[in-house]
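User: Hi! Is it possible to get a structure for several chains at once, not just one? Here's what I have:
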Amino acid sequence: MTHSGQSELAAANHKAVRELVTLERLREFFTPQSIAMVGASENSGWATALVGAAATMGFTGRIVPVHPRVDTAFGRKVIRSLRDLDEPVDTTFILVGQGAVESVLDDMAAAGIRNGVVVTAGYREMGAPGRAAEESMVAKAAAHGILLLGPNCLGFFNVHSKSPAYGVPIAPPLIPGPVGVALQSGALALIAQTIAKSQGVGLSLVATMGNEPMIDITDAIDYMVEDENTKVICLFLEEVTDRATFARAAQRADAAGKPIVALKVGATELGQAAAMAHTGSATGNDAVADAAFRQLNIIRVKGMEEMFATAGVLAYNTFPKGRVGRRLGVVTGSGGGCDIISDSADPEGLEIPEFTQKSVDAIIPLLPDFANVRNPLDVTGFAMASRSGETLNAMDKTLDIVIEDPNIDLVLYAGINAPPTAPLPDNPLAQGFEPRLAWVAERMKTARIPVVPISMMAVDQGAWGMEKLLQHGIYVAPGLNGSVAAVGRALRWLDARGSLNLTPEVPAATRQVTEKGAWSEMRSRQLLEEAGVPIVPGELVNSADEAAAAATRLGFPVVLKIQSEQITHKSDIGGVALRLNNEADVRTAFEKVYAAGKAVQGAVIDGVLVAPMRSGGLELLVGITKDPTFGPVMAVGMGGVWVEIMQDTSLRVLPVDAAEVKKAFNELKAAPLLKGARGSLPVDLDALAAAVTKLGDVAVSLGDSLGALEVNPLWVNGSQIEALDVLVITE
Amino acid sequence: MTHSGQSELAAANHKAVRELVTLERLREFFTPQSIAMVGASENSGWATALVGAAATMGFTGRIVPVHPRVDTAFGRKVIRSLRDLDEPVDTTFILVGQGAVESVLDDMAAAGIRNGVVVTAGYREMGAPGRAAEESMVAKAAAHGILLLGPNCLGFFNVHSKSPAYGVPIAPPLIPGPVGVALQSGALALIAQTIAKSQGVGLSLVATMGNEPMIDITDAIDYMVEDENTKVICLFLEEVTDRATFARAAQRADAAGKPIVALKVGATELGQAAAMAHTGSATGNDAVADAAFRQLNIIRVKGMEEMFATAGVLAYNTFPKGRVGRRLGVVTGSGGGCDIISDSADPEGLEIPEFTQKSVDAIIPLLPDFANVRNPLDVTGFAMASRSGETLNAMDKTLDIVIEDPNIDLVLYAGINAPPTAPLPDNPLAQGFEPRLAWVAERMKTARIPVVPISMMAVDQGAWGMEKLLQHGIYVAPGLNGSVAAVGRALRWLDARGSLNLTPEVPAATRQVTEKGAWSEMRSRQLLEEAGVPIVPGELVNSADEAAAAATRLGFPVVLKIQSEQITHKSDIGGVALRLNNEADVRTAFEKVYAAGKAVQGAVIDGVLVAPMRSGGLELLVGITKDPTFGPVMAVGMGGVWVEIMQDTSLRVLPVDAAEVKKAFNELKAAPLLKGARGSLPVDLDALAAAVTKLGDVAVSLGDSLGALEVNPLWVNGSQIEALDVLVITE
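Assistant: Yes, the chains can be modeled jointly so their relative placement is included. Here is the combined structure:
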């Protein structure tokens, strides 16, 4: 098969697969009630794990081992082929060697089976020959109307439907719950399940994606958006293959009010290299992914532990639609704990204001004399013990006062310390634990403001306590700094909910481009002028006389710049003259600049550009390039050292509107300079955003031809805005 | 008692206490083998906890309850007073009301008891009256030769000597080990012990410090430095009261090769406010503490979990003396895990280089065909199973190859997955666990380079596995990103070991200062000139003629600056004229500047300073202020927006030498500008460091009189260095 033939097959496959994948099919796929393990003997670790997982999950459906040379396995009769089934199973778990997979697909079709998980590896991840085998397999599956997860995956398990199509042991207990997980890494599934369990986060679905030629990670997202058991979607991402489908899935999640929490690897060059080796596919530029994720309101995390802490806070607590204020009330039993929370709150943009005097007055009688009644509040150890016969302790009563404090938008409540084992009958404190939990759960659901239970330490919940917490639907966020960070992430997600600013598809090109490579400055200026981007006036001249005349028309001081498509770094060759204050200087400079251009071998000189020299104001930079995954992406920043040394830029995936451009400028560390620091005029941000939005639109209008479009500097003086230098590169 | 009287008592107390506190006394204090609980009935939670802690720890010494109105408690006979003891106990645990504490001290003296823990609260933390009661108590204790921990503390427990002078329940198991903890917060002790246990970090001592009028946290450090059972010292700090004793303790720890890991709260304004409320003492400026800690080679962490992860890595692994390279070898069983490690390594300055071809060739035969043999290495799940009859699996054999790879300086080894419970007899894999552990422990001790076991997830070790790990002295650092960060911190500590750069005491003043407030510029210039700090030439003039003559002597262009002690912001009142290119301009400017000065009410005009105007080069800033705890502290940075907008400064507590000043400049984000970015001359760093060191010495020479000393700008052009403007403020 030729390379182009393979690409045609891939394209045909893609089309066929997309027609096959419907929400209905996904729902069917992820909730099987009977499973055939093809290639399973008791020597297979995967099959052994599946059978064990089924027992752990309480799966009551059929598990049928299929093997050509084995009679019994796992206490079950082994059939020789899927064709021997009396009635079709819901899915197959395929463990056979690569050479046998396609015949298994034929058997499935003959047996009326529509779904399969391919554990078998050696496909796309191994390079070209594997890629061909993968396309061939997919073509056959699609032709049969069969939907596959994998190859090169470890399957999935659905906790609510109790479906164990999964080749990794599950250590009990497996907690059903609202958090779904899809992973572009098989081995991390075990880690994900273990961390979720340790934190008391219940799971809905855990899916390992494998090579994704049929069901891909956006399909898994789509399924979880529709799945009523899933409230928060966790992703481990090594690659985002397609902007449009990914963005659409993210939009549907946001519209459904289901946060996506993603651990996207490839944050550094090292990370990218590792990702490339381990998935066989390139990982896009990470800063671009960062920008795209923010525009899609996807919460990005750096570790698996914080992924589940963030998901737990979002899934188990009650938040209103829309923005929640940043004023925390903090109720703990430790002054040192208060200190750590305070230190952690500031970087998250969270405040810890004073309580009202009314709250303070109401709390004082509840606590011992030596308690210092202020926010953050240490109720002291005494207030954590319930009085005999009372369900609530003084800390609980304090919580109720803080909930009603008008200075407070959200309460962090460190009042739940679940005993690891069932309390002894003679322990009144521990005996009161369950009624207190019921009370806290009620507060979490109905209080005026969100009440978020947190733990002072990130350690495992004990079995007994966790069971009780889960019965009441309570998640205790782990650790002081960890839980504050998780709350910060949750609030930022709430802020952005419903205002996604990344369109799934880049609009089609509206300009025909025939040039390739760097454009001349005059041609670049023309492009921007046509689009209505403000640009410094300029005239192309070809003699010292013309230069002097143009300078007089434009007004002194002026700059001269050599114009040649072959000369991209004009300054380096002496092709630029600055601060020319009179005609004589302009004439001399023209000769010098022109000669410098002529001296460059092979350069065709179009002339010399004369333009007014601007001073004062600020010099900004707007650069637009093309990311392999997300397409056109714009960086804005202050020019000069701000970009070169401080790397102080904001990125946005295009197209964006003026409001988003303003946000991008306001994110800069140098943003105070825009407000008129150090005596310069405050920048007219509306005018700036309008101009930069047009620049973005121009870049988008070039479609796939866009290589780069850079304005450096973009000069701004109050509401005066001019592109002083422009470079366009097309491909 | 008058306020000054109280201060005298405090000073006398301090002197008496310091004479009492010797290493021998501390050793005796922290290892009691018999304890009297004074004020203990079975209603006391503290006493109940102590008795429980004793049982958990296996304390076999006497516990004697003392109470005036109770006959038996905790199955023990209660005595009425310490005077009724037949023989003295090693320490008392004092729970009585504040009014009775001093008579307990008398009883202790009468009974021959030298040590006590005061749990009783209501002292210094409650303000002035409590402070008086505290000083009175301390005076009595000191007079009796009694050493106290507290008041307002929860005591301590020493795991190796099995001494439970501690009023908080200890949840078993309590793991003996190499990590000591001292906390300026009582409630965090429980949290510390719980987190340590969950991570499998063994403890030596846990001490809660209380108000510290006698034994303070530096004494606890000193004890742990001497204690052979402690290898790493963990601190929770709300305040550092005294630079000298703290720095000396840190120096002794460093000299002994015992890292200090500190969670210092008060990182933000919020944190400082909370710390003030909760300890009754101000917390020093946090950025200064950050600098001081780095100069003292104290590892600073943000959370309790990372405190123990860092301590565990340092305490349980074998590191050579001196710097360890940054080239990691990574051996895991997960490609996704490799990605997360790669992403986490870069911010820590850790590299993951290629293995040598020799290593790759040696590893390939050990792993399945589909494994991708590169660093970071995913050995795949198959390589983690031992073959029947063999102790080591393929992953272990791989480790041995990586240890010998000359490209690698340290190995992260994710090969230890401790089963939570004892493996079943028919599980050969789990049965091989203990021999494998012994092998790994041997590698950790004897390998050419450090081998650091890490876990893929930060979850509790199960009881059985943890016991086995501890038996072999193995600590498995928790979580992928968490363990990489802990290794990064450990390596930075190793780098700095033995090269502390903060002297315990600020040298005494060598200059007598009579001025108070802002000095005139001429007087400030004189101070710097005397000290040999290079300063721009300048002449003080009092007429336009004198100004013109001075300008001609100094060379054009010049600047004029009004000189008056009453005018500190010269520019704001029009008292500065820049870029004067000829005599005429100088004359005009003189009149303008002089008139502007005269117009300021109450200003006595000393004249006008004429100085050459410098251009080109770089404008730096050196500012020195005084921190309440650490004394003189210097900030260096680039001037202008770099300081104002980017807050790009490096801090150093003074005095420092030129090498440390160079380091400070090299830490700036703007450091590339010093190397001659953007066409400017490279800065002569040796000359710069020499000048700035002199500036620091001048500030130090002012002693307590120093208010602030600021040079802004310090102009640098290659090796030309001049202070262009100087401000000195004394108190």
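DSSP finds 25 helices and 29 strands in chain A. Chain A touches chain B through 83 residues (CB under 8 Å).

User: Great, thank you!
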